[in-house]
Structure formats: C-alpha cells, structure tokens
Write a structure and sequence with these properties.
- It contains 8 helices and 7 strands.
- The protein is of the alpha/beta class.
- The protein has one domain: 3-Layer(aba) Sandwich (Rossmann fold).
- The protein has a 7-stranded mixed sheet, with helices on both faces.
- The protein starts with 5 loop residues before the first helix and ends with a strand.
Amino acid sequence: MAASDPWRAILGRPGEGKQWDAREFFDSGLWEIDAVMRYAESLRLPARRGAALDFGCGAGRLTLGLARHFDSVTGIDVAPAMLALAREHNNQPDRCRYVLNDTPDLARFPAGEFDLIYSNITLQHLRPRLIHAYLAEFVRVLASGGLLLFHLPCRRLRPPLARLLPGNAYSHLSRLLWPVAHPGQPVIEMYGLPEETVVGRLERCGGRVLAREPQDSAGSDWESRRYAVTR
C-alpha cells in the first residue's frame, strides 16, 4: 500500500474518489498534534518536552507536528517505503529522525528515553501478542513524568448478520469476500484488546492510567479508546 497509495494507506478520507494533496495531508498532522498537545496540557504532562516518539509514523504526518513542540522526535515504522517518504518530506531534519523498527520490541531505545509517546491508528493493525509486547515497551521507554497517548480498539461491534452466524464465522466470511469486493487491494487486518486487559497490562508494567476515553478512529465497526498513561 505504501507503493500504490501511501497517503490513503495511512489516513483514509471522506469521498473515495478524492486523493490527498501532500500539503493538505501533512497539515492534517499539524492540526491533530496541536489538539493532542492541548489535551496533554489539560493533564499537565509531560513534565518536560525533550524527546518524543511517534510509533507507526508512516510518512511522518504526525512526526513533523510533534517537532513543533519537542526538541527531538523519533518516528519509527515497519515499512521502508513509508520511511523513504518521511525522509523525503522531512522539513525539520535537525529535530526529526526516522528509524526502521521491524522487531517486536523497542530494544534499540534505553529505558526512560521519551517524554511523550504517541500512537494513533497503528496498534489496531498488530496481532494481540505484539500489542501486549509493545504496551510493555511503551511503559519501559517512557520517562518519569512523561505521557503515553495511544489509540486501540477494545471490541468489534457485531452487525446484524454477525449475530446470526456462530463464533467467528462472520470474520472469516469477511476475509473471504474482501478480494471480491476490493479486487487488487491488500487485506487490512484489524485487532483490538478489551479495555480491562489493556489497563491491567499497563499497570503490571509500572504505568499509571490517567484516562481512557471513547475515540472513533477505528471506524464505525469498532468501539475504541484513547488511553493516557504516565509513570
């Protein structure tokens, strides 16, 4: 998807026929981060604005926004093609760097490295075991007095047809029909974790959950939360 339509792969938009303009795409990241920082200020966190981490940075849409508020920002992603785009559009090279992270951890970063960790519409595409692993890593690399903000679905909302089918039959049927309804497009996998599972995982790792609020970033098929965590 990074090769065929990277902007839409990162962030869909209303109106299927309308393509993102690059400037408009990156401006949307600036507005999102400005709203994030207003929310952070309401929590009176983070204590410092030194280093920030953009987890699942894609083409750097949010990384550049974070660079307006922090001394340095690291964007990490699993897709080399996305990182190539991020570097191409990096207009703040003195503050932003992009790193390929294709391991199930953040071992390349020391404990307490980041004052802010932000991740939106990324964890939802990872299998549950990886979500568990990264939640633990987020808390480990978060500085004392830092702020972790991330989005994650907590449960899929079952449409009427799903209620008539047993077990996971609806999910399996959806995957089979996707290539028919969307020929040539890759399957975008979606996952979530129950809210109490997420809170328990964070607290066992030493995080303190400040808030868990409804957020609709995953679309109408999912109930989602934005979590605010410190340590």
